[in-house]
Design a protein that fits this description.
This protein has helices spanning 2-44, 48-52, 57-62, 67-73, and strands at 76-83, 87-90, 93-104, 110-122, 127-130. It is of the alpha+beta class and 141 residues long. It has one domain (2-130): NTF2-like, domain 1 (Nuclear Transport Factor 2, Chain: A, Roll), CATH 3.10.450. Strands 1, 2, 3, 4 and 5 form a five-stranded antiparallel β-sheet that branches. The longest helix has 43 residues, at 2-44. It is globular. The termini are far apart. The relative contact order is 0.15.
């Protein structure tokens, strides 16, 4: 009986540690879901300046989105947005494939592109960052 009583605090401590770890994973997943939802909304509604804010600041510093790229993006409207579930590559990286149907606002020509996204988690900032950049609308089938 004494052994059992001595092991109760250890069992409680392990249970609390497991709960904390589980809560951290859940929070990370919640943050990812919220990030993907907000980024999708920005792309769907043509808010490309807002979408730039999702790009990893290090990548943005090395390869800033030019005003020409933003103007090119503004030439199209997203008519359909078909996203796959994000796939975990590692604990801190997910990939997602999104098919975008685009309509050129000037020519009314419709076409589709595939956007392969890579998201990485910043543990210090508890934030998911897009490392693959904005969709490349210059793709050709």
């Amino acid at each position: 009986m004494r052994r059992l009583l001595r092991s109760v605090p250890l069992i409680i401590a392990l249970a609390l540690l497991a709960a904390c770890a589980n809560q951290e994973i859940r929070s990370k997943q919640t943050i990812l879901n919220e990030t993907l939802r907000a980024y999708a909304a920005a792309i769907r509604w043509g808010e490309y300046e807002q979408a730039v804010g999702f790009i990893d600041p290090k990548i943005q510093a090395e390869h800033p989105v030019s005003s020409l790229e933003l103007e090119r993006l503004k030439q199209v409207r997203v008519s359909n947005y078909d996203e796959s579930q994000p796939v975990a590559v590692s604990a801190d990286e997910v990939r997602q494939v999104v098919r975008l149907d685009l309509l050129n606002v000037n020519t009314q020509v419709a076409r589709s592109i595939v956007d392969r996204r890579v998201w990485k988690y910043d543990k210090a900032g508890k934030h998911w960052w897009l490392v693959s950049g904005l969709p490349d609308i210059t793709q050709r089938d």
